[in-house]
Amino acid sequence: METAVGTLRKTPLNPVHRELGAKMVAFGGWEMPVEYSGLITEHMAVRGAAGLFDVSHMGELEVEGPGALGFLQRVTSNNVAKLEDGQAQYSALTLPNGAPADDVIVYRRGPERFLLVVNAANIEKDLRRLEDQSRGQCEVKNRSDDYALIALQGPKAQPILQGLTALDLSGIRYYHFAEGEVAGHPATVSRTGYTGEDGFEILVVPDRAADLWRKLLEAGKEAGLVPAGLGARDTLRLEAKMCLYGNDMDETTTLVEAGLGWIVSLEAAKGDFVGRRVLEAQKKEGAPRKLVGFEMVDRGIARHGYPVYLGDEPAGSVTSGSYAPFLQKNIGLCYLPAPKTAVGTTFHVDIRGRRVAARIVPTPFYKRPQ
């Protein structure tokens, strides 16, 4: 991540991050906090207690109207018809080659009312794609400036948040959401996240975000809640093998290759959708390559973009790689030819001109205790 320069967009929480002494960086056109007390400290706080993240740079696109459900069925990979009001779904906007134009979360607010949370760098691209594909079947609106998004993640997230809301959080199941007040502010509370831990993501209007952030930090102080930045968010999601769009998947990698075949619905009720033919064939016959998780055998951290070798043959590059603070190992992800993806397979990563051994391991690297 580069140091913040030039004209960058700022989230409603930007002044609060500066008050807290966060290190700010440029990320996808936004000025965002990368760390406060230190990446490892923040990472371990989320695994053991709780962390608070500003993810207001994410986009929110509204899809509404009588044709909304049918439209989303045709442009996403998962079966939107399975959703009930108050339920969310991890999915992807697909391309004809079976690759994701973006990975998204679809919220069903009503039979004809849906909200898509999309990646920050893809907001305009996704909006144009959906507008072009909708052809008047439904209305697509960019509501990104109407929301701030705060993520409270970790094993103590529920008791911390419960003290600030009358909503029964124990009744909100994973990938479900509810409307209510949090610390006196109208909000949408969903049991979702990007860390591998239990937790919640809270949508609130921008001018209420700073007060909500401060009240959450105060409520969680004794429980060990800390503000956390993009650095810890990245290492946490990597330990949980949650893909990062633009790194671990993009418009050249199919969902099956990326290990996301589970969000590809081939049920008859789903009907046809963009990329179905390719994805159906790959689910049946297998993909030519697969995204695998690995840990370093020798010393060295495999960073994004480092070349990968099977024997003396180039085999691609590292898509994500880092030291994993909780696991205390150097881990990463990369694509390899399907016949070479068995657990235990050894290959090499070129780290600044030195070829270092790595071994394929089961993923996710980390699973939270149940």
How are the SSEs ordered, and which strands pair?
Elements: E1 2-3, E2 9-10, H1 14-19, E3 23-27, E4 30-35, H2 39-48, E5 50-54, E6 59-64, H3 68-75, E7 87-94, E8 100-110, E9 113-118, H4 123-134, E10 139-142, E11 148-153, H5 157-162, E12 177-182, E13 185-190, E14 199-204, H6 206-220, E15 225-227, H7 230-239, H8 276-285, E16 289-296, E17 307-310, E18 313-324, E19 329-337, E20 346-351, E21 354-361
Parallel strand pairs: 2-4, 5-15
Antiparallel strand pairs: 1-3, 3-4, 5-11, 6-9, 6-10, 7-8, 8-9, 11-14, 12-13, 13-14, 16-19, 16-21, 17-18, 17-20, 18-19, 20-21
Comma- or semicolon-separated keywords:
6-stranded antiparallel beta barrel; 6-stranded mixed β-sheet; Alpha-Beta Plaits; globular; Gyrase A, domain 2; 8 helices; 370 residues; disordered N terminus; alpha+beta
Describe this structure in words.
The chain is of the alpha+beta class. Among the domains are: 2-56 and 147-239, Probable tRNA modification gtpase trme, domain 1 (Gyrase A, domain 2, 2-Layer Sandwich); 59-145, Alpha-Beta Plaits (2-Layer Sandwich), CATH 3.30.70.1400. Helices cover 21% and strands 35% of the residues. It is built from eight helices and 21 strands. It has helices spanning 14-19, 39-48, 68-75, 123-134, 157-162, 206-220, 230-239, 276-285, and strands at residues 2-3, 9-10, 23-27, 30-35, 50-54, 59-64, 87-94, 100-110, 113-118, 139-142, 148-153, 177-182, 185-190, 199-204, 225-227, 289-296, 307-310, 313-324, 329-337, 346-351, 354-361. The strands form four sheets. The chain has a six-stranded mixed sheet with strand order 12-13-14-11-5-15, with helices on both faces. α2 (39-48) packs across α7.
